[in-house]
Amino acid sequence: MPYLFTLLRATLFTIGQLPVVANNRSIIYPHTQTSFYSSLNFVIIMVLLTVVIVVPFLFTVRHNVRCEVCKREPIWGLRYKCTRCPHYNLCQDCFWTGVTTDQHTNAHDVKEYSSSSVSLVLFVFC
């Protein structure tokens, strides 16, 4: 995790220090950037900060169900529940590697759960 913050800090520093070439002739340095480039940098920074804050949280969520493939119980991280097969849950490792059992195929739609009580509205179509 400390490496991730170091990488983020270096990326943000680089974004702020890069000169911008305008009209193929002039160079605009960060302290004289137009509001467009400042807004663009702000959006990039906000996206990076969101990823840094949300992604580590997703891997610490505990679901009190068992993975049908690897039999891991409880499932930590993201949980994938089949919309066709009743009570069919996959852990993120089995889902990302495409491993299934006989009753379920990768053609089935699954719903991704990022918390043990509230579901994300993300549908994954394999």
UniProtKB/TrEMBL annotation:
Which GO terms of the molecular function aspect are on file?
A: zinc ion binding
Question: Keywords for this entry?
Answer: Membrane, Metal-binding, Transmembrane, Transmembrane helix, Zinc, Zinc-finger
Cross-referenced Gene3D superfamilies: 3.30.60.90
What GO cellular component entries does it have?
Answer: plasma membrane; synapse
Q: What is the top-level taxon of the source organism?
A: Eukaryota
InterPro entries in UniProt? KCMF1/Dystrophin, Znf_ZZ, Znf_ZZ_sf
GO BP terms: namely:
synaptic signaling
Name of this chain's protein: ZZ-type domain-containing protein
